[in-house]
Design a protein that fits this description.
Layout: H1 3-10, E1 17-22, H2 29-44, H3 46-52, H4 54-80, E2 82-86, E3 89-97, E4 100-107, E5 113-117, H5 121-126, E6 128-134, E7 141-148, H6 150-172
Antiparallel strand pairs: 1-2, 2-3, 3-4, 5-6, 6-7
Helix pairs in contact: 2-4, 3-4
Domain YdbS-like PH: 79-157
InterPro entries: YdbS-like_PH (IPR005182)
Transmembrane segments: 32-49, 55-72
Length: 174
Amino acid sequence: MGIQGYVVKQLRADEEILSVIRTSLAHYRWPLVVWTGVLVLDFFLFYPLVAVGKWGVVIFFAVLVLVILNWLRLAFLWTHNIFVLTNQRLIDFDQRRFFERHVAECPLQHIQEIRYSSRGLSAVLFRVGTVVVDCGSLSGHIELVDVANPGETKELIMNAHHNHTKNTDERQGI
């Protein structure tokens, strides 16, 4: 089952998805650069490896497979590390490894503070930052690390919180 099916199973009957927020690809820039460099080096050394003989070809293809597997791993982590904003809560699906997933949620009515920060030249260049949602003293906080356009993400969560509060007040007749 893909992450979309897993997300849909986590939703309540009266809940709808407002936005799916992913960690920016800039978060994975250094592993991508390293594994791309290994691939370039592998092809650069192709002729000397072939000159070695059968073992050189085996080494070439082993490195090629290793690079492809690591690219697939990074793609898996990127697609499975998501933040789902619904009309009732913010859900953090944190995929740390292939078989390790952490899910945290914060009901919109418990949000006390939303802030964001961008540190460093790369954060400014790639327009990424960390959005922190404070969910009260019992729930702690949820960090949306290296999201694109953190200011817009903060506004999106604030608008969902405002709309949820307004709808709750209307239902209660306040």
